[in-house]
Amino acid sequence: MTPAQFADRTETVRRFNRFYTRQIGLLHEHLLDSEFSLTEARILYELAHRIGITASDLCRELGLNAGYVSRVIAGFEKKGLLVKTRSTTDARVAQLELTKKGREAFRPLNDASKREVGAMLKRLAEPAQLDLVDAMTQIHALLGEAEPTYVLRDPRPGDMGWIVHRQSVLYAHEYGWNAEFEALVAEIVAKFIREFDPKSERCWIAEKDGRPVGSVFVVRENDDTAKLRLLYVEASARGLGIGRRLVDECLRFARLAGYKRMVLWTNSVLADARRIYEKAGFELLEEAPHYSFGKDLVGQVWGRDM
Question: Fewer Cβ close by (within 10 Å): the C or N end of the chain?
Fold first, then answer.
């Protein structure tokens, strides 16, 4: 490739960028005839779809300046669109959550975005729509980060046996735990199957490329308290956010089911899982040493209010 050819390609990309920013209205002072700029709307979107997100998370994931994010958050807080709560694990960290007013402000913005994109697509015949979507998908694949493709689904026949097998294999391999752990997992799974109440209990299977790669359970502890059990992600699927997503789904289900609190039991050696629980707002309530699964361990009880 000659310098002139590279220059032509550069100009083609720049020309497309100018065209597309005009096409979707990014040069307007406010997005979709709302009171929000593009960046403010993007921040609203993250707040509407994430639990326990922080200003640092927004800066890192959206590539924004910390000072700018701080000003936007302060403005949202002044308008009553969001509230800050102190993390239960680190009092220096403020977690952000949209208020009812904030969600009401986001809803028409989200709906308007869907309508505008829909109107753009409807101007094209179906073959052209498919060409456009394929081209955008290719641009995303070439320039973006790899998209973690996985789904969460209800368990199917055979999944419960898979959970017992995979958890037993993983903890034996990574931590040297013996068959006592396999017996415990089998007992938990068997109890879930025998006593399952769909109004108060749930299991999710994470599936990637057509095969299970993770799982989690919510079971009833008592009328007010749900218990999270057996969070698991295959080693090959870590780093995709599956563990955090599974915990988020547990919390959402518990709220809808009317629980006021969620608890879980784990061991201090499971550092990755503990980090997920901390980010989801769980607090360490108690811990005690015990000898189980052929190892000296420190058991921990974590909990959080809904």
Answer: N
CA 136, 49, 235, 149: dihedral to nearest 10 degrees?
-30
What's the pLDDT at 83? 86
CB atoms within 10 A of CB 247: 24
**Which domains does the chain show, CATH number per domain?**
3-143 (1.10.10.10), 151-305 (3.40.630.30)
Q: How many CB atoms lie within 10 A of CB 132?
A: 13
Closest CA to 222 of 252, 254, 244: 254
Distance CA 201, CA 217 (A): 8
Helix segments in the chain, DSSP class H: 3-23, 38-49, 55-62, 66-78, 100-122, 126-143, 159-175, 179-195, 242-256, 271-279
- Contacts of the segment 50-55: beta carbons below 8 A, 24+ positions apart: 51/97, 51/248, 51/251, 51/280, 51/281, 52/87, 52/95, 52/279, 52/280, 52/281, 53/95, 53/96, 54/87, 54/93, 54/94, 54/95, 54/96, 55/94, 55/96
